[in-house]
Amino acid sequence: MAWMETHFYSFSMKSNITVNVLIPTPGSDCSIRDMEEGGKYNYRDGLPVVYLLHGAYGDAFSFLRYSNIERYAQDRGIACVMASAGNELYQDTRSGLMYTKFFTEELPLFVRTVFPVTSDPKKTYVAGFSMGGYGAWYLGLTRPDVFGRAASMSGALDLVGMYDHLDPEKNIFPWEDAFGAAVEGGVNRLRGSRHDLFALYDQAVEKGFQPKLYQSVGLSDFLYDMNQYAREEMMRRGADLTYEEGPGAHDWVFWDTYIQHVLDWLLKK
Predict the structure, then answer these.
(1) How far apart are CA 127 and CA 56, in angstroms?
(2) What is the pLDDT of residues 169-182, one digit of tens each?
(3) For residue 50, what are the β-bridge partners?
(4) Which of 42, 54, 47 is nearest to 85 (CA)?
(5) Which of 4, 102, 151, 175 places its Cα 20 to 30 Å from the Cα of 90?
(6) Which domain, by its residues, includes 131?
(7) How many domains does the chain have?
(8) What is the CATH number of the domain that holds 70?
């Protein structure tokens, strides 16, 4: 596995950005044929690639520090891309930080140009945990032409409900900066907005896309009920949703296990 920490100037973010990229590499038991068409390390046509999104207070190093993502990606022959997004829920913000544009346009263009990854949306994926679980569905449903599949682990998938039950003393998100008029003055206008995952799903379907979604959550996760609600909303819509749950809480013990499930689902024919 080749791990490359790269830095480039982002027009969307108006600053230099750190991006971690994992590229599977052949071992001593491989031949040059493994790097050609049909091989596991098909650099010529481009490797499948997943953009991995961190949770609140995380960064471009979260998966590298707390999971065995290098080994999992190497075993499966999939490239991984990781960048930081603050606590802004992957939105284009009022303050001028354009996270949505960065993750759906600028970063994929940079990665496709510099690294041996596919340009095929059907083999380009996005996945994340907690805040990044919302981010993965949000980016995937906002740009289904860019990401063929989107996976959430322990995702904060119901923004409407989360804002309604907001505890000011425990609030960690800059709601007005991230969502603007949808929450201005403390009024919840998120339902049906461009930030609402269920509205985004409906819009994607209207445009002719049938998004493939994955969702997992631990039985002891404090977001379990929210995930049940999100599952019911998507199933009511007849969504192509793969759902899993199992023992675990909102932590890396669960995410390190289920990121393996995610990778297998992403690469499923």
Answers:
(1) 15
(2) 778 899 999 999 99
(3) 80, 125
(4) 54
(5) 4
(6) 2-266
(7) 1
(8) 3.40.50.1820
